[in-house]
Amino acid sequence: MSTAETNLQKLAKSCIPMNFVKKNKGEWDHQKWLDFCESIKVKGYDPVNLDEVGLILENKKSEYFAKACGDCCKPKKAAKKAAPKKAAAKKAAPKKTAAKKK
Predict the structure, then answer these.
(1) DSSP state of 85
(2) Which DSSP string corresponds to 34-83?
(3) Cβ-count burial of 7 within 10 angstroms (0-12 exposed, 13-18 middle, 19+ buried)?
(4) What gap in Å lies between CA 27 and CA 25, rounded to an integer?
(5) Position 72 confidence tier, pLDDT thresholds 50, 70, 90
(6) Residue-level pLDDT at 63
(7) Residue 75: which residues within 8 A CB-CB, separation 6 or more?
(8) 50: buried, middle or exposed (CB in 10 Å: 19+, 13-18, 0-12)?
(9) Which residues, including other chains, have CB under 8 Å from residue 48's CB and lie 6 or more apart?
(10) DSSP label at 25?
(11) DSSP 15
C-alpha cells in the first residue's frame, strides 16, 4: 500500500473530515476546500489523493444531513389500533314481580 493510500485511510478514520463538515454546516466554497486540503497536509496527511479526500467529505456531508434530518425522513410506522373492547354480556336482572295480595 502506498503512503498516499495509507494517509487516505488514516484521514477517513479520523474525526477531521466530519469536524470540517460540521464546522461548515455541510456547505463550503472552493476556498474553504483549498484551506481544508492545506490543513490536512500540515497535519501530516501528505501525500494524499485530493479527489479521494473530496469523496470522503461528500460521504461525511451525507451522514451529517442524514443525522440532522433525524426521523423526519423515515416513514412513520402505522399506529397500532387498539383492539375493540368486547362488550361485556349484560346479565338480565331477574324481574321482580309484585306479590299478589289475597
Answers:
(1) P
(2) HHHHHHHHHTT--S--HHHHHHHHHHHHHHHHHHHHGGGGSPPPPPPPPP
(3) buried
(4) 6
(5) low
(6) 96
(7) none
(8) middle
(9) 4, 7, 8, 11, 40, 41
(10) T
(11) S
Whole-prediction pTM:
0.67
Asked if residues 45 and 11 have their Cβ atoms less than 8 Å apart, the reply is yes
SS3 state at 96: coil
All three cell numbers of 52, joined, read 479521494
pLDDT-derived band at 86, boundaries 50, 70, 90: low
Residue 2 has pLDDT above 60, yes or no: yes
* Cell numbers at 15, concatenated: 474525526
